[in-house]
Amino acid sequence: MSDAVNKEEHEKNDFIRHIIREDVANDKYEQIITRFPPEPNGYLHLGHVKSICLNFGIAKEFGGICNLRFDDTNPTAEKQDYIDNIKNDVKWLGFEWADKPYYASDYFDQLHEWAIKLIKQGDAYVDLQTPEQIRETRGSFNEPGKPSPQRDASVEDNLQRFDDMKNGKYAEGEAVLRAKIDMASPNMNMRDPVIYRVMKQAHHQTGDKWCIYPMYDYAHPLSDAIEGITHSICTLEFEDHRPFYDWAVEKVGAEGGIKYPPHQYEFSRLNVDHTMTSKRKLKQLVDEGIVTGWDDPRMPTIAGMRRRGYTPEGLRDFCERVGVTKSDSVVDFRLLEFSIRQSLENTTARGMAVLKPLKVTITNFEEALSEWESLKDEGVNARWDEAEKTLWINQPKHPNVDMGEREIPFTETIYIDQGDYELEPPKGYKRLSPEKSEIRLRNTYVLAVTEHVLDDAGNVVELKATIDKTTLGKNPEDRKVKGVIHWVSATKGVPATVRMYEHLFSAENPSAVPDLHDALNPNSLTVLEAVVEPSLANAEAGSRFQFEREGYFVADAEEHTADKPVFNQIVSLRDNYKPE
Ligand code: ATP
Ligand code: MG
């Protein structure tokens, strides 16, 4: 069975789509409406990618719509910059929200009116206890909570106090509005949860209009209701909040203008090994300067993954493979890399980059090149520049020749990778060593090392070699030469900064490490002074490549220029890992 078929089977069977399919079959709704509701208190991360793919994906599959709604009920932690980046990230992933972006703050007037309605119905009251008292009187799992002294205050008193809250007469922590439900409920979320609090804080959308703000648990179901959300899909930690979700929707009721009661469905959050998916902790890394910013290529943020060169196609494929369930699990990071790698294989141009350069002087270069044209293979397309003593060789950018060609300069001095010449080669080593002098240089001649030059410490610092002039694009007739290595012209190649990455966290489950710093991998970034062929240096910032034999790399979106190329490693070329 092909992967594609497998994936389809998977989609068909996830429990949320199963529910929706039934609802569609029963004509339960006019249209399926989902929402993605981030709080703009940080940048989106890999976990959000799963939620985005699920919510927007479902809307698309069922001919519905998905709203982007900012759950902006806590102005202290929120910023316009986060809003802008969240919008950008969702678009980059390939999704479109219906209409315009929505904000929970768009509904503050309505939510406030409904709070008054709840007070009038006897379903809410203003509590004047201190936050500590409220905490202490909530009780515990075995013990019911104690009612607040204000729990049975009159509607008039509550309306007056709530109005005073709104008018700034209470300081933060002096008064809250609580839903009046059940202080003995086995579900702690139903023990008269706080639904409004005083916060003397300007808001990024509503300015100074409010000094009371609704709590998330109150704003969320009602925002869903206002927008006519049919399926409110969230992560499992909200399962215990569902009774309150339903309570709020029911108490506001049809007369509040609610069209369909929205329903909440929970799925298990995405966890990936060596990865942290918590905006708060990622913010700590940014604030402490442990990473260069939210878009540091090591960050599991969408901005970071984009800068790292990950593709939207790869991320979407990853989410499809992960699927949607109710059971908690940790996904293998290599699956993510598998999806990314797969998305790059047929789409990225190839080029040669030497990451750890070792100089090679070709001692017979001029003599060998004097006959290049008569001895070359018919298939070789090249031109000789006499002034520059350079052979410019045309090569396709990819086995799929539709991607076009590039010109590779071949000169008297070149670089090969230090790892391709070993003084003491391990068993089975197929590249160059004192015992094995010959190898094919990719796209050009067969090279034979004649001498190595050592420094005082005994390290190889240069090779001298000759080329076999009869081998431009073809094999020698009298012998078999094993192995092919890549190379870059020492004079026409361009020095480049190449950043190699490992996991940002060495801990498999960084969230479980009490001090974040102890979970970090000190080797997460290695900066190499590499040399790349001109076609790579001339690439546009943000374009992705396969560096032959080295892996996939992206020209850094912020720093790359033709004069000072900067590349980030996206992912290695291969891995033994195979998804199930
Ligand atoms: P964080 O703790 O990182 O702030 P959050 O859940 O509080 O995460 P929100 O901005 O409130 O962040 O989340 C928006 C949506 O993304 C929610 O519906 C939430 O359930 C979902 N989401 C967040 N993290 C994950 C995850 N790891 N896997 C799947 N969905 C997630
Ligand atoms: Mg949150």
From TrEMBL:
Compartments where located: Cytoplasm
Binding locations of ATP: E39, P40, N41, T235, R269, L270
Short sequence motif named 'HIGH' region, residue ranges: 38-48
Provenance organism: Psychrobacter piechaudii
InterPro entries reported for this sequence: aa-tRNA-synth_I_CS (IPR001412), Gln-tRNA-synth (IPR004514), Gln/Glu-tRNA_Ligase (IPR050132), Gln_tRNA_ligase_bac (IPR022861), Glu/Gln-tRNA-synth (IPR000924), Glu/Gln-tRNA-synth_Ib_cat-dom (IPR020058), Glu/Gln-tRNA-synth_Ib_codon-bd (IPR020059), Rbsml_bL25/Gln-tRNA_synth_N (IPR020056)
Enzyme nomenclature, EC number: 6.1.1.18
Cellular compartments per GO CC: cytosol
Top-level taxonomic group: Bacteria
Domain Glutamyl/glutaminyl-tRNA synthetase class Ib anti-codon binding: 350-468
Protein name: Glutamine--tRNA ligase
Top-level class of the enzyme under EC nomenclature: ligase
UniProt-listed CDD domains: GlnRS_core (cd00807)
